Task: structure prediction
Amino acid sequence: MEPWLEGLTPIVEHQDLKVPYRYSMGATTSKFFIEIRDRKRILGIRCPKCKIVFVPPRSICGRCLSSLEEWVEVSDKGTVQTYTIVHYATPAQPAPTPLIYGIIKLDGADTGLGHMINEASYENLRVGTRVQAVFKEERVGNMLDILYFKPL
Ligand SMILES: [Zn+2]
Result:
């Protein structure tokens, strides 16, 4: 116990804090979401030096710090690299629990995309399961324009 707490019972106040905010996604992430929204196309971006294709795209390579500008279309199909099953519900979850979050390496990409996996049985899902993106009918330009990935 900290000396200044000696003989005191700390008062703890519990409150919910709502913080409205606006976030500019920038040119690179905006293009990524616009392509999904308008054409149901998933784009990556290739490093000119490392040749790594990043999905989701980024403007700077994390390995060599090159500026990234070479857009490439990747598949809406990919392979589950890892996953977890979430049983604890919070308001931040985009879907009711239990839900599955996975990292999916899309065909043509070198990095993993985090998203939900649905229409999958927990018993049969494995690292290496092939999955495909399921797009929302009315897309608005965010990550949930892909509803989830489902096993092929
Ligand atoms: Zn690089």
In short: Strands lie at 42-46, 53-54, 70-74, 77-86, 99-106, 113-117, 130-135, 146-151.
